[in-house]
Design brief:
By secondary structure, the chain is mainly β. 15% of the residues lie in helices and 39% in strands. It has one helix at residues 2-23, and strands at 41-42, 48-53, 60-68, 73-78, 83-89, 91-96, 106-109, 113-116, 122-125, 131-139, 144-145. The protein is globular and about 40 Å long. The model is unreliable at 1-22 (pLDDT under 50).
């Protein structure tokens, strides 16, 4: 009986350690980034993105800045990873759900924070003017739009 238990324990350890090695990501490296270091790239959805740390397409932590032009509406969508967003400047109207619904949006001025649990549909609006946010997540990430009901 003890041989069976010993083999089971060794097998379990192997699975845990082998699986953990596969799931590891690049270690966080020292970095110091100023505003002048940011490179803003256009996104087809109508905003600009500056990658600060990491790569959302790869495994591991990433930090992006996102610049919304005045009036931009981000339609309902979700991401596979958990994220934390912070409004750095301007005001963002933010809501959760599969339908863009202004009545269910919270006004988030600069300094505000929100969370985006994995696969949680959400939407945003830079209704009052340009807004800059910072998003921290743990990739790999992506964006899945929610299909609108006609």
């Amino acid at each position: 009986m003890s041989t069976v238990i010993c083999r089971a324990a060794i097998t379990a350890c192997f699975v845990v350690f082998a699986g953990g090695a596969h799931a590891q990501s690049d270690a966080l490296k020292p970095a110091q980034v100023t505003q002048d270091d940011l490179v803003w790239l256009a996104n087809p959805a109508g905003f600009q993105v500056a990658r600060i740390i990491g790569d959302p397409a790869r495994s591991g932590m990433y930090v992006n800045r996102v610049k919304f032009p005045a009036g931009l509406r981000i339609q309902p969508h979700f991401h596979p990873d958990e994220r934390i967003g912070t409004v750095l400047s301007g005001t963002v109207y933010f809501g959760y759900g599969e339908q863009f619904d202004e009545a269910n949006m919270k006004i988030l001025p600069a300094g505000s924070v929100w969370t985006e649990p994995a696969r949680q549909p959400h939407f945003a609006w830079a209704k009052d003017g340009e807004a800059v946010i910072q998003v921290i997540g743990n990739g790999p990430s992506g964006t899945t739009p929610i299909k609108r009901n006609q």
